[in-house]
Write a structure and sequence with these properties.
The protein is an all-alpha fold. It has helices at residues 6-20, 33-42, 48-61, 65-70, 73-80, 86-103, 112-115, 123-134, 144-152, 161-171, 177-190. It binds a DNA duplex through helix 3, helix 6, helix 8, helix 9 and helix 11.
DNA sequence: ATCCCGAGGG
DNA sequence: CCCTCTGGAT
């Protein structure tokens, strides 16, 4: 295939995926910024479907940052056990909750600058919370799906999530920064899967440098 | 670069 | 069995 400019490629990816996944947003179940923050911490290397099986119990047990911070860690570990990394995630949940109480009056901050100071929260998690709880496009959440699809589609050749985020931010209009992650994630789950991508069903196949290549 | 870690799919 | 899942800290 003739090599297309990354900017044109990015614009067409956005344009073609939007009608496919128009009504779909994050797959995580939540109501408040605190719930989304905790659900996103749990989502590391775990399907959002599984996160959604433990968060109803977690959210029923803890209603604010102070209650997370004061809890017996063993109680949280038991609830979130099936999500994997349960010791690290429990530490992140409680250390973040403590930081919210001590530095943010118990509230979830709404800026990248503040969010990434929370232990266990880096740019990916911060971007998810910023967009889905506060409607802010400060960056692009780059997870395993966004990384894989960006590379397969020829939008970047980088491996590092922060570098990929920076490149995508240069290719796409700011108002689409939050949306592009959701679109790439849903497409990654349903069509462009890691193991065996279903290129025969993909609406991007004709503009994808990796189509039918088993990348 | 390595570690954390359970669960489901192929 | 091996790979993957909305990562982050050391």
């Amino acid at each position: 295939m003739r090599r297309r400019s990354p900017r044109l490629q990015a614009r067409d990816v956005l344009r073609r995926l939007e009608p496919l996944y128009g009504q779909l947003t994050t797959g995580l179940t939540f109501t408040t910024p605190l719930e989304l923050l905790m659900a996103t911490i749990l989502s590391a290397q775990c399907t959002d479907e599984r996160v959604n099986t433990v968060t109803p119990t977690l959210f029923a047990m803890f209603h604010n940052a102070d209650e997370y911070a004061r809890s017996d860690p063993a109680q949280i570990e038991t609830i979130i056990h099936s999500c994997g990394f349960f010791r690290n995630k429990t530490k992140s949940i409680q250390a973040t909750a403590t930081a919210l109480v001590e530095r943010f009056n118990g509230d979830v901050p709404n800026t990248m600058k503040d969010l990434v100071t929370l232990p266990g929260v880096a740019r990916k998690t911060a971007n998810v919370v910023l967009f889905h709880s506060f409607g802010r496009n400060e960056g692009i959440a780059v997870d395993t799906h966004v990384q894989r699809l960006s590379r397969r589609l020829g939008l970047t050749r980088e491996q590092d999530a922060v570098k990929i985020e920076r490149e995508l931010m240069l290719l796409l209009p700011r108002k689409s920064w939050g949306r592009i992650s959701d679109l790439l994630i849903w497409h990654g789950r349903r069509v462009c899967s890691a193991r065996s991508p279903r290129c025969g069903e993909c609406v991007l196949a004709d503009i994808c440098p990796s189509a039918f290549a088993t990348v």
